[in-house]
Amino acid sequence: MSGNVRVTIWNEYRHELKDEAVRNIYPQGIHAVLAEALGTEFAVRTATLDEPEHGLTEEVLNETDVLVWWGHMAHKEVQDEIVERVYQRVLAGMGLIVLHSGHFSKIFKKLMGTSCDLKWREAGDKERLWVVSPGHPIVQGIGEYIELEQEEMYGEHFDIPEPDELVLVSWFEGGEVFRSGCCFKRGLGRIFYFRPGHETHPTYYNEGVRRIIANSVRWAAPTGDSKPKYGRYIPSLEPIKDKGSV
Amino acid sequence: MSGNVRVTIWNEYRHELKDEAVRNIYPQGIHAVLAEALGTEFAVRTATLDEPEHGLTEEVLNETDVLVWWGHMAHKEVQDEIVERVYQRVLAGMGLIVLHSGHFSKIFKKLMGTSCDLKWREAGDKERLWVVSPGHPIVQGIGEYIELEQEEMYGEHFDIPEPDELVLVSWFEGGEVFRSGCCFKRGLGRIFYFRPGHETHPTYYNEGVRRIIANSVRWAAPTGDSKPKYGRYIPSLEPIKDKGSV
Amino acid sequence: MSGNVRVTIWNEYRHELKDEAVRNIYPQGIHAVLAEALGTEFAVRTATLDEPEHGLTEEVLNETDVLVWWGHMAHKEVQDEIVERVYQRVLAGMGLIVLHSGHFSKIFKKLMGTSCDLKWREAGDKERLWVVSPGHPIVQGIGEYIELEQEEMYGEHFDIPEPDELVLVSWFEGGEVFRSGCCFKRGLGRIFYFRPGHETHPTYYNEGVRRIIANSVRWAAPTGDSKPKYGRYIPSLEPIKDKGSV
Amino acid sequence: MSGNVRVTIWNEYRHELKDEAVRNIYPQGIHAVLAEALGTEFAVRTATLDEPEHGLTEEVLNETDVLVWWGHMAHKEVQDEIVERVYQRVLAGMGLIVLHSGHFSKIFKKLMGTSCDLKWREAGDKERLWVVSPGHPIVQGIGEYIELEQEEMYGEHFDIPEPDELVLVSWFEGGEVFRSGCCFKRGLGRIFYFRPGHETHPTYYNEGVRRIIANSVRWAAPTGDSKPKYGRYIPSLEPIKDKGSV
């Protein structure tokens, strides 16, 4: 069934164009590497900031089951109208996978209701992501941990609501910890925040990281439920006494 | 210690002025009745929509430990700037008690990250609020349930994130249920949503309802923690190998 | 993939043999009706209390992905050794669906760590199970609620730990509410408690009830993870300074 | 009000008697040091394994608001009858603070419903406990983290149910992480698991550790609620139609 899951990978796609070191790692952009990783299982397309409507037209979103989001230096350039469009789609059931610096994206902050702030250090710390919820579908096929030789450090406190499920916790060489794999539900939509993926490290080539992202896409895919009904609700399901005050 | 808790009760205060039936129940406004209920234990002040800055100046908020919020017909008139101010205060630790139709207030929706939509019916249903978390401080002194002879019905699905703790669930005469007492944490702030309180019923005179609101104020009062540090974090706490790529 | 899920339906199978009214509803036992309901999608077998080892031999459990449990009048007759065997399998990843009066089974109480007590009344109350988590896989295909014309009432407080996810809440004609669909995780295993199914009502013929049970089996099926490693863990993953005190 | 909280500190008290290195750190036992730490604020008594009924008579427990538990080498010697007694008291509202190796105590495993297993290494790792829920009463007055120069390492996976609230996460020098401060509710009782405190290190003299334990006692103290009613519940609160089948 996962062959039918339609994934849109959204990437800011600025670092790769401006910075040679990043381009050397991701010559066609982070989205291209993620598309290659997910394309073997899902129906994948990509979208980037500088496309019209950031590549996220009504049509594209209506055909998207799970949206993957990578952004960093240009969060502010994402138009509020598009953020609202993505937001409504998540509440209606679209899955959302937020990667790394996407913690500060407008869409993630809007869905969390918090600042999503954290500590950070670009010093190439070793990172070890420990599984704290073995048996969870998102860590299927992952052993006890994933090790990344060099990554940007993110440290607590991470200002998010208590996750519905905490799946991974990171250890950093420099002495910090971080809740690295966090599940949330908003409306009908499932959201997974996954920490790794700084643009100056080849993280999205790592097999474990790719596996977790693929697992999370499968987990976040909507179940095809109809929309709940809201608003005025008359008549009552059970007879109620006439009370005059109505 | 609760004698030192500084409470600001915010009320839209429009229904009472426009509608005689409401004014008959709350002649000085809902805020006045809540102030009377909470004033025996806490240091209480009130604020209303039509005051300058809605009565929620920087100074007032800085002196507020817990903010109680009742609004309904004029959610849109609350200025975004004031909403942002309240929001920042909650993240910094101020408690927030959201009552009844406040589910649709800008501040509650912003903190939840969802639509906060629900079903409703104004037919004077009997409501029975069952305690599902006995031993929780918010239901201290409440028996097994509170019964309200007439209330507006709110029905599921209530579009909120899964509460951190669910304390009360309502039964309605007309056949619906509702998660009526919900705890959340956002940043350093504790938030309690409490369902009852339609303006055409004398709900805020009910002893059980008043007790729950007072309990929730005590529960939501900040613990005086210092603010976490966010942002660039150098140097590392542990020595890390020089990796060149920094 | 769900065609490969191996389900064992365990039924106490006493009421049906002793009580003609129950036998008229479930002539071959509750397990037979559930087996018929689940057999179209899963590889189903059944087991009952009075079989050797209650039908739950090591071999049977090793070949079970999800165990469905219905018991009531003879909880005490379930041998502790078999309970321990089921318990270890759940921690190792087997799914467990606990139905109705199974709330008082030894295995459920052992996994919850609480009394699992509740209120009850056999008066044929109408029950309406409201979906409070639309979009959850367990309520896929269910609309806003399921209605059962007559059921035993179960009322709060239900003495369980706060569920990891609350999916359904029941309304009862006589004035009570109940958390009717509750998700838990213990070790690697997923557990779903589902309230309806008193033996004197034809509840397991209801299409909605059957659909929820089938959905929950799919949701609870293990993901095939390897077992985490516990115990003494030497050497460290990172070099640590010799500290003499070891 | 916390001056009225009655605390019983239970200690196995075997390591201190058998092992000179431990006795040098805790000459009168771990319980004596904890009693000294908590005695400035609470009404404290102590109890140990080798007292009659392990010092936990019905009378002592009935006069205990919060029980602190440290055990390690003799978990099996704790009588099941006493475990059951403590268990019933927790469900009835007594707070329970489980320290360090108490993760494997009978009472903690019974309340959790899981194996409570973990990884461990006695190598004097540096431990840094990071606050992941600032503003929580249990970390009041604690800054961003507590640092312990030498401690036993505990590593994930820690086989517990998802905590109701996760307050602290540990970083270990040797490369592991651990959920070190975990809140649970069982029945009416609040439970806090707090990791540090290996007998060969002077951990319970650490100011931050002592402060967290004191905070947790205050947080876990019962709120004096009456007991919920369970069992047969007749008549109904609302009139129900006579249905014959009763």
From TrEMBL, chains A, B, C, D:
Residues 6-220 form the ThuA-like domain. Pfam families: ThuA (PF06283). This is ThuA domain-containing protein.
